[in-house]
Amino acid sequence: MRPLTTWFRSHPFAADGLLAAALFALELTGLAGVGEPVVTVALALALATALAWRRRAPLVSAWAIYALLVLGIVADRIVRFSDAPPPGQLFAVVMLYTLVLYRDRRLAALYAAALLVAELASRLVLGTDFVFTAFFLLLYLLAWITAAYLGARRAYITEVSARLAVAEADRDRRAVDAVSAERTRIARELHDVVAHAVSVMIVQADGAGYALRADPDRAEAALRNISATGRSALAELRRTVALLRTDDAGTAHPEYGTAALARVVEMMRAAGLTVSMEMTGDLDAVPPSIALGVHRVVQESLTNALRHGGDRPRAAVVVTRADDAVTVSVTNTPRRPGATPPPDTAVPGVELAGSGSGFGVIGMRERVAVLGGDLQAGSLPAGGWRVRAVLPLDPADTPAQKSLGA
């Protein structure tokens, strides 16, 4: 039964033809008391033909049926071929339903008014029984109500389907955005870990190569530092992979804090970078995500200072915690003439004006932006390079808020 219904829905003209045939057969059942059966059969056939086109040409079909209905009234008035109501009223009921459901309701109201006039004419001119008139008026009303209900239901289903389609498209878009954000996060984390360690190892390897014959002890120390840096990078990489597998993207490893910053500074000193470190405030009590952000900014900035600071690079790190934010400032000395400029170089002489084009500063800028902060990086008027990041603290983590909570 269901496949047949589906077939009729996909072939509306066939369904309308079947309905027209059924109403034609119903009209023929009243031929027993008809004085002019040929006229009745002709009218019923014409009505059925018009009804079969009700969804392909609803207005033409509707007014053709109305004209045939009026013609039946006139013919009955002239020849008086039947005591029953003139043929076509059931067809008119179906057409009123069709106009309300598929066309504008103003046209349907006009058609309903015309049908009311035809019913009154049939009552006054032919003296049709009041029961027949009331019956068909009731059918017209039921057809209107049914079509209005089904039209509202169809509109509701269409709207719901459209909203579901929009929701599905939005869900797919969010999934793509989430994948893209996750790829960016993984790339940023791996860059912070690998680039820092590899940069230090390259500098140490170059130094060991130069000192291998002239100063074997120094070369041996450099090789030990390369080994230690590699092991540390491997451990850091494992921690990062474990972090990336967690559900919370903002959760940092508890190791990040002042101790981790001190280890980064010591590693850079061992690699040949002269670093001064100043930390102010309770930095170990900041949220893990902020601690990780501070760690990565310092690590990347010192790596760039080591790579591009010349033969005797120097850098100064200042990390300060205030009530509402943590400020990180890393400044390195001017490069020697001919040294490779760092990535993301700003316009010379414009303080903190660099927009950046390399992945190092871009990665720091993205990380700080995720945390709701601001990062500036650029060359200084007197020479050198400075990175300054401000990472806001959640109000709940400030001392004032904690004291209020206590």
TrEMBL record:
Domain of life: Bacteria
SUPFAM superfamilies xrefs: ATPase domain of HSP90 chaperone/DNA topoisomerase II/histidine kinase
EC code(s) of this entry: 2.7.13.3
Domain (DUF7134): residue spans on this chain: 5-154
Span of domain Signal transduction histidine kinase subgroup 3 dimerisation and phosphoacceptor: 182-248
Keywords: ATP-binding, Kinase, Membrane, Nucleotide-binding, Phosphoprotein, Transferase, Transmembrane, Transmembrane helix, Two-component regulatory system
Domain Histidine kinase/HSP90-like ATPase: 293-394
Cross-referenced InterPro entries: DUF7134, HATPase_C_sf, HATPase_dom, Sensor_HK_TwoCompSys, Sig_transdc_His_kin_sub3_dim/P
Database matches in Gene3D superfamilies: 1.20.5.1930, Histidine kinase-like ATPase, C-terminal domain
GO molecular function, one term: kinase activity
Protein name from the UniProt record: histidine kinase
Source organism: Rhodococcoides kroppenstedtii
